[in-house]
Amino acid sequence: MIKIPAFAGMTIKPIFMTVQTWTYLLVGITFALYIGIAIWSRAGSTKEFYVAGGGVSAWANGMATAADWMSAASFISMAGIISFAGYDGSVYLMGWTGGYVLLALLLAPYLRKFGKFTVPDFIGDRYYSDTARIVAVICALIVSFTYIAGQMRGVGVVFSRFLEVDIDTGVVIGMVIVLFYAVLGGMKGITYTQVAQYCVIIFAFMVPAIFISIQMTGNPIPQLGMGSQLNDGSGMYLLDKLNGLSTELGFAEYTDGKKSLTDVFMITLALMVGTAGLPHVIVRFFTVKRVKDARKSAGIALLLIAILYTTAPAVAVFAKTNLINTVSNKEYSSMPEWFKNWETTGLLTFDDKNGDGKIQYVADKQANELTIDNDIMVLANPEIANLPAWVIALVAAGGLAAALSTAAGLLLVISSSVSHDLIKKVFVPNISDKGELWAARGAATVAVVIAGYFGINPPGFVAAVVALAFGLAAASFFPAIVLGIFYKKMNKEGAIAGMVVGISLMLFYMLKFKFGIFDGGKEAVAGLEKDWWFGISPEGFGSVAMLVNFIVSITVMRFTPAPPENVQEIVEDIRIPSGAGEASDH
Hints:
The protein is mainly alpha-helical. Helix content is 68%, strand content 2%.
């Protein structure tokens, strides 16, 4: 029986259903809901498939955008990173949230007024070049596949623990579900599915956070609970307690940062401008009726996203404190059931190096006996806190909703890039609407298979992979979009050169320092930190590649012909605010 200190006499009576039973029930209900919505809202035309017919309300689009945005990285991995990185993990909060402000104010309304379905479509028309369009498609595919690898990995993690299947099988199940509603409904089906998924995500994230905040501090608001006194009578503040536990085990104080100011700034900037250049987020602003609805829905999405993002640091603190209290220097034989369950997934491992039967969890790698995957912290958090089975299952349903919602959006970007931007605009301009729709669905099917492969063979834990996708988006798309909107003299030669150089530089740096491709493989990566250029990590290097993109673009533009007059007039027109609200057909 779990007693909640803040409410005298109030108890939660145990419900005699296992976590797995609750998980099957809640996940089954949510999946049935998603599939039902997909069938109800199936796309009958390419406009419905690409932009949901352009008739989505600002509130529905805001909720769908928030779900699209709150991926497995946000739901599963962000609080996990903060749990282990402490203060340094704040770069993800600042970068991803700040990026949405940048997107809402700087890009969304103008792109909506330009009226193209996809980012490659915008770049192809703005830079009057099929070559520019093809380069943009390649960049979109690289960014999307890098991002979707993290989502499929998240799906596998959730399934492996809560449905007791291996991670590979979990990825395959997720592939089938997302393929069904993404291919059948296109953007129309995805949009209304994501509205439902937002509700599942936010409820699943907040309920355990509120429960644990009450348990530990008596404060029902997690954001305040994180900075409150513990209700164990010690008079100690929760963060002071965590700092003390961390230093006892040889780790740095939780509230201290180890990253250099330069790297923090560069990672934050890369995440911000990467947000503004992410193709699956930008396409959402073509689904609304009017230009002003694009800005409004971006504001709504930011508000809805902030609920989760301001709670994530509290969840990280609760989880890390409870974890250390539960496992550090405790007998392995006395570990609760959740510990053994996570061990079977391989995401938590105990190696009794000194043979004393106790879990030695310390900073010293030679002496440390416990290895914990960052991605399990949010999912295991309610189990560690001994919350009811239905709450644990709810978190599983939320993690799946987060991963699948973003995966669906990314699949749409991939399929539309192939069917609309390559087949329709370049190779088969006379293709029928029906033929293009079938091409889009075929491309989505192939994309799911490739994404599944990356999910089964992931290049790293979820948020690290996703952070690299933001760097790639920053290095390739952001300069081309910004210059395309605000600099009418920007020409195709400059944009193409900038995109090619920017994404090539980012890919080289990522492969070299994140995967060790040129220096002995993954095993050698840890030793390469000293060789980082300017002391900047691969997650932050997108900022450097973006600046190089800007420099190359403008330099090449200076020595090549100016864009045609009609293109310059279009650029002038999309920046005119007067009458923008009436531009519903453009």
